[in-house]
Amino acid sequence: MYGFLVARTFLALVFLLAACAGEATSTTTALTAGATTTSSAPAVATTSLPTLESCDDVPYRPLVLPERVAGAETAPSDLGNDPYTAIPGTSLKLWVDANSAPVVALVRGSLPPEAWAGPTARIEVVRQDAALGPLPGDVWAAAWFESEDRCDLYTLILYPPTSADDALEVAESLIPDR
What we know:
Layout: H1 2-21, E1 24-32, E2 35-42, E3 60-62, E4 91-96, E5 102-108, E6 121-125, E7 128-135, E8 139-145, E9 153-158, H2 164-172, E10 174-176
Antiparallel strand pairs: 1-2, 3-10, 4-5, 5-9, 6-7, 7-8, 8-9
């Protein structure tokens, strides 16, 4: 009786696994004369994601930058896992300090990927209504959109140490980059 129960449980498990595996491939291998075994491998499904086109260059530049910015705009480098600039399909302008730490980033193609960490103020940036407020990690940002197109979404990021006054001054100084 015990052997029958074990065999029945084993068969139920095999049928359950076969049913859950979906489409599968079968292989039969001869072990010895007259003895064969069959094994199944689950089908592997792959999905390819659409290629995300990069946005054109950011069409703005600030006239005012924090004093700790070391020189002119820097070619964007790998900022690691920075949640504000490591967004596929965006374009970026970056200003760094003397140690190459980011001070200001201007992103085209994304609004902030994080929720505001506090209240926001309504300001005007390049003749558009924008939100100015704190983000997690003592970061300040201004964000606006010019249309519903993804590449018409903009975020100005100011990295710590910074303040609301610094962020407002830089945001209001943006002009078309011609």
